[in-house]
Write a structure and sequence with these properties.
CATH topology: TIM Barrel
Pfam families: Bac_luciferase (PF00296)
Protein name: LLM class flavin-dependent oxidoreductase
Largest sheet: 8 strands, parallel, barrel
Radius of gyration: 20 Å
Structural class: alpha/beta
Order of helices and strands: EHEHEHEHHEEEHEHHEHHHEHEHH
Number of helices: 14
Keywords: Monooxygenase, Oxidoreductase
Number of strands: 11
Strand content: 15-25%
CATH class: Alpha Beta
């Protein structure tokens, strides 16, 4: 199993007061430390306009910056909100940053779930999934053939001889491609088109097992070209993670902050995202979350829960996630304890040595 960290550039107002510029230095420090600790991937989440969530208007600009600050860790968009973009510009930028990072880019895309982001950029929120499905075909033409002639409902453009799409990436014909899925429509489409699957922090194991089963069935229908995606068949599941010496200590240090944070995903600003991608209602408790979606506790507790999840879902990667409210010192200690006490249980010795180097 591989291990990545999902970074939302979410400010902690106590440490990063308005207008929260300091969140970017803190996030960068965490990514540099994640590389040193042996994590495989830094996933960068795009978000716009929020005063109480992530501040990341351009994943590609940040990944290019990180390419010069790191040397080994993979740099992934987690995710690009595709309906907010011209899909050809997404292809160009992914290819370019792949060159700048010497082949370390992974491209995650999704349809988005925050209506105010679409309103702010003048895009149609209700039509977002149709936009993604049109954009994906155009992107595959650009990646594989470097030319295209497309006149669709949402996008149009032509690149014909003697012109072609450049630059081309280090990872040919394209970097590993992932799609975030939370509904049967998006998960099925992800599988049929050969994307790696990214699943939310919010569903419980029963829901995850059903979602991954659907993905695997639909993946079998992918065309030969799309099944060549290096990420095809990869299942990346995000979880809220916090490691302490004991389960009781983990609870004491996180309970109030994590319950408050997850409740946010049931609000109008997220179009009821909590209920649409998981089985959860509006009333949440730490005990319920611990039984369904948190990987909180001692290393031994988390290893056991993660083994169960791996067995039930066939997951290939864990994306660690956490809110900013624990403070820098506790967050960094949790990441270090996870790297030292949990990751070795899921890696062969040779992989551990390579990661350390």
């Amino acid at each position: 199993m591989e291990f990545g960290i999902l970074f939302t550039s979410h400010a902690n107002p106590k440490e990063e007061p308005y207008p929260h510029r300091a969140v970017h230095a803190r996030t960068t420090d965490e990514i540099v430390e994640a590389e040193r600790l042996g994590y495989d991937t830094a996933w960068i989440a795009e978000h716009h306009f929020s005063t109480s969530y992530g501040i990341m208007p351009d994943c590609f600009a940040y990944m290019a910056y990180l390419a010069a600050k790191t040397s080994r860790i993979k740099l992934a968009s987690g995710v690009i909100t595709l309906p907010l973009y011209d899909p050809i510009r997404v292809v160009e930028n992914a290819n370019f940053v792949d060159i700048l990072s010497n082949g370390r880019v992974m491209l995650g895309i999704g349809s988005g779930y925050r209506p105010y982001e679409f309103t702010g950029l003048g895009k149609d929120f209700e039509g977002r999934r149709d936009m993604v499905e049109e954009a994906v075909g155009l992107m595959f033409d650009a990646f594989h053939r470097h030319r295209y002639d497309h006149k669709g409902r949402y996008f149009s453009g032509t690149v014909a001889e003697p012109y072609e799409l450049l630059p081309q990436p280090v990872q040919m014909p394209h970097p590993p491609l992932y799609m975030a899925g939370g509904t049967d429509r998006s998960i099925g489409y992800c599988g049929r088109n050969g994307f790696g699957l990214m699943l939310s922090t919010l569903p419980g194991i029963e829901t995850l097992a059903a979602q991954t089963s659907l993905y695997k069935r639909e993946l079998a229908k992918a065309s030969a070209e799309r099944a060549k995606n290096p990420a095809a068949g990869q299942i990346d599941i995000a979880r809220w993670v916090y490691i302490a010496d004991t389960d009781a200590q983990a609870r004491a240090e996180t309970e109030e902050a994590i319950v408050r944070h997850i409740a946010h995903f049931g609000g109008t600003g997220t179009a009821g995202y909590l209920g649409s991608v998981s089985e959860k209602g509006s009333q949440l408790s730490y005990d319920e979350l611990l039984n369904t979606t948190l990987l909180h506790g001692s290393a031994e507790t988390v290893i056991a829960r993660l083994r169960e999840m791996q067995a039930r879902t066939g997951m290939t990667s864990l994306l660690l996630h956490y809110p900013p409210y624990y403070g820098r010192e506790k967050t960094m200690k949790s990441l270090r304890l996870f790297a030292e006490r949990v990751i070795p249980a899921f890696r062969p010795p040779a992989h551990r040595v390579a990661a350390a180097e």
